[in-house]
């Protein structure tokens, strides 16, 4: 029976969806261990819903009284609360902020950590974490030897518990930090980040030029919940920002649907997207490696196929 | 100002992974290189020193004896000296253990700024920089794409999901570097020659146990074979049919 603390991610007081997945992962893991308590901790003031977090799997929720996000402050609060509750594990979501907290919380608890987990099992009295290495070219299973297992959960791999329950709400003191977030600028368009999107439309050199990118954007606009991705070649050419790069020196994604347009499929790119559920490849070279990994392929010029696909998707989702 | 940069020798990103009998990457035929994100860390450390017009940049790696090659590259790029914390098991050490070893060395070094790559592209954990900083009682700003030093204040920007945040801290501070922060310089021929005369200290370090135990390594499950639906825009209706009724993702 292992109790688990989940550190929530909030932005301007609102809970991020990735946190509900982490709570769901903790619920399943605590149950697998024989029924432990799951406590969710917001390290900054936030407007949280007891039914939403209870439904996702939390038994209790603690909200700390910090006004803004401090990475080291948040970690210190989590370390203190983990000690007060005597939990056997601390889970965070594998977002930019969550990854930041992972190593700090583990160091604060003098224990080991496992990042970007895609599965959690319970065996021989401890959690076994499955996580990708070499950007997904391989996966490892690890156990944390220290007193507390600290782990981050990758997006799109865990689901909220989906139960009818209300979490008990409480408050706790926030620890101060030396680093402070002083401003957050939102991106325009409101498109989901490629790492979090349930659907990804990604483009490569096959589009021919940066000016043709609107064809890809039009498809992403037509597909609900779609994020935009890019190959390394395109990012290195300056067509797209690095925040959209998928692959070994970019983001690893595992959406329901990944559409690779004009991407040949270099090994570094394949590493970052081959765990997607359904992969569609569009490329003029029938011998391109991407086709060996695709669920469905179309051979041809992306600049002709994308507009037709966009129209068909628009008709289908209406 | 004393600046340190922590680097790692990793398998090249073009490596095809084969799992060896010891549950680790089979190194046969694998090329190793300086972790790509560490190049941004080295470049930023050199830029800070150059802008200040004084100070020193020390490169530190926890690695096997082979990691000398990567440290020599960092020296050739312009670092002043290097320390290799040597242990044959270092390439397989977990992040928490690595952080402990590096923190011990850094504690003695007394650096005002410590730069890391945001992750090593082998274990992909993103954890060593923040763990080292926590052990040293220092703030750490991760995945930085913009770095500014204003007196003893560090002002950084980083991309978070759907936004960009500004994070500030005072020196001493640790920074983990993301692609986009700068354009890492190439080592010049002069730099490569000069590197041969720069101090590269080899220190044997002990590892006390492991914070994380490896149970197994395996290749990801094979994807079921796919199919080519057709050629050109004419194939779009058949693709839509497959996405809707076969894969059920639309």
* Low-pLDDT regions of chain B: none
CATH topology of chain B: Rossmann fold
Q: Would you tell me the overall average pLDDT of chain A?
A: 95
CATH class of the largest domain in chain A: Alpha Beta
- Tally of helical runs of chain B: 6
Measured on Cα atoms, how large is the radius of gyration of chain B? 21 Å
Shape of chain B: globular
Number of strands of chain A: 18
Number of domain units of chain B: 1
Low-confidence stretches of chain A: none
Range of helix content of chain A: 25-40%
List the helices and strands of chain B in order: EEEHEHEHEHEEEEHEEEH
Largest sheet features of chain B:
9 strands, mixed
Structural class by sheet pairing and helices of chain A: alpha/beta
Characterise the protein shown here.
The complex is a heterodimer of chains A (318) and B (250). In chain A, 28% of the residues lie in helices and 29% in strands. Chain A is an alpha/beta fold and 318 residues long. Chain A has helices at 17-32, 50-56, 71-85, 96-108, 213-222, 232-236, 267-273, 302-317; strands at 4-8, 10-11, 14-15, 38-42, 60-64, 89-93, 113-117, 119-123, 126-133, 138-144, 149-153, 168-172, 180-186, 199-203, 226-230, 257-261, 278-283, 296-299. Chain A has a 7-stranded parallel β-sheet with strand order 7-11-6-1-4-5-12, sandwiched between helices. Chain A has 8 helices and 18 strands. In chain A, 63% of the residues are buried. Chain B has one domain: Rossmann fold (3-Layer(aba) Sandwich). Chain B is globular, with a radius of gyration of 21 Å. Chain B is 28% helix and 32% strand. In chain B, helix 2 (68-77) crosses helix 5 and helix 3 packs across helix 4. Chain B has 250 residues and is an alpha/beta fold. Chain B contains 6 helices and 13 strands. In chain B, the strands form 2 sheets. In chain B, strands 9-8-7-10-6-1-4-5-11 form a 9-stranded mixed β-sheet, with helices on both faces. In chain B, strands 2-3 form a two-stranded antiparallel ribbon. The interface between A and B is large, with 97 and 88 residues.
């Amino acid at each position: 029976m292992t109790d688990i603390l989940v550190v929530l991610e909030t932005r301007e007081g609102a809970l991020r969806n990735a946190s509900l997945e982490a709570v769901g992962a903790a619920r399943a893991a605590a149950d697998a261990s024989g029924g432990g308590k799951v406590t969710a901790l917001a390290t900054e003031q936030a407007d949280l819903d007891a039914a939403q977090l209870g439904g996702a799997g939390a038994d209790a929720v603690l909200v700390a009284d910090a006004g803004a996000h401090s990475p080291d402050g948040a970690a210190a609060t989590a370390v203190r609360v983990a000690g007060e509750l005597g939990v056997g594990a601390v889970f965070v979501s594998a977002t930019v902020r969550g990854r930041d907290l992972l190593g700090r919380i583990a160091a604060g608890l003098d224990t080991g950590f496992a990042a970007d987990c895609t599965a959690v099992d319970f065996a021989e009295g401890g959690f076994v974490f499955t996580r990708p290495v070499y950007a997904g070219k391989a996966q490892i299973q690890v156990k944390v030897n220290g007193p507390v297992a600290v782990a981050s959960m990758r997006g799109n791999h865990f689901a909220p518990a989906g139960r009818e329950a209300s979490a008990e709400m409480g408050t706790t003191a926030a620890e101060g930090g030396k680093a402070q977030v002083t401003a957050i600028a939102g991106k325009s368009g409101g498109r989901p980040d490629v790492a979090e999107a349930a659907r990804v439309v990604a483009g490569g050199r096959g589009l021919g030029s940066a000016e043709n990118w609107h064809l890809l954007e039009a498809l992403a606009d037509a597909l609900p919940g779609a994020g935009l991705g890019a190959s390394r070649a395109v990012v290195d050419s300056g067509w797209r920002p690095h925040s959209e790069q998928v692959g070994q020196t970019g983001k690893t994604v595992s959406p329901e649907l990944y559409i690779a347009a004009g991407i040949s499929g270099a090994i570094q790119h394949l590493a970052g997207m081959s765990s997607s559920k359904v992969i569609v490849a569009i490329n003029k070279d029938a011998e391109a490696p991407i086709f060996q990994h695709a669920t469905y392929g179309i051979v041809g010029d992306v600049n002709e196929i994308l507009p037709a696909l966009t129209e068909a998707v628009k008709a289908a989702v209406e | 100002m004393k600046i340190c940069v922590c680097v790692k020798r990793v398998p090249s990103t073009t490596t095809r992974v084969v799992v060896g009998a010891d549950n680790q990457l089979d190194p046969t035929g694998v090329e190793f290189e300086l972790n790509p994100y560490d190049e941004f860390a080295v470049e930023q450390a050199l830029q800070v020193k150059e802008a200040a017009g004084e100070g020193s940049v020390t490169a530190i790696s926890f690695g096997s004896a082979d990691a000398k090659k990567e440290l020599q590259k960092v020296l050739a790029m312009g670092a002043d000296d290097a320390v290799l914390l040597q242990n044959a098991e270092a390439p397989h050490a977990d992040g928490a253990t690595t952080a402990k070893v590096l923190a011990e060395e850094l504690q003695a070094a007394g650096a005002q700024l410590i730069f890391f790559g945001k992750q090593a592209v082998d274990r992909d954990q993103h954890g060593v920089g923040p763990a080292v900083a926590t052990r040293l009682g220092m703030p750490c700003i991760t995945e930085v794409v913009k770095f500014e030093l204003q007196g003893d204040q560090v002002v950084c920007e980083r991309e978070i999901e759907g936004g960009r945040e500004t994070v500030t801290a005072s020196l001493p501070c640790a920074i983990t570097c993301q692609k986009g922060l700068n354009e890492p310089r190439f080592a010049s021929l002069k730099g490569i020659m000069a590197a041969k005369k720069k101090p590269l200290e080899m220190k044997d370090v002990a590892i006390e146990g492991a914070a994380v135990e490896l149970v197994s390594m395996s290749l990801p499950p094979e994807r079921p074979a796919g199919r080519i639906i057709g050629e050109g825009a004419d194939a779009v209706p058949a693709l839509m049919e497959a996405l809707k009724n076969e894969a059920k993702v639309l």
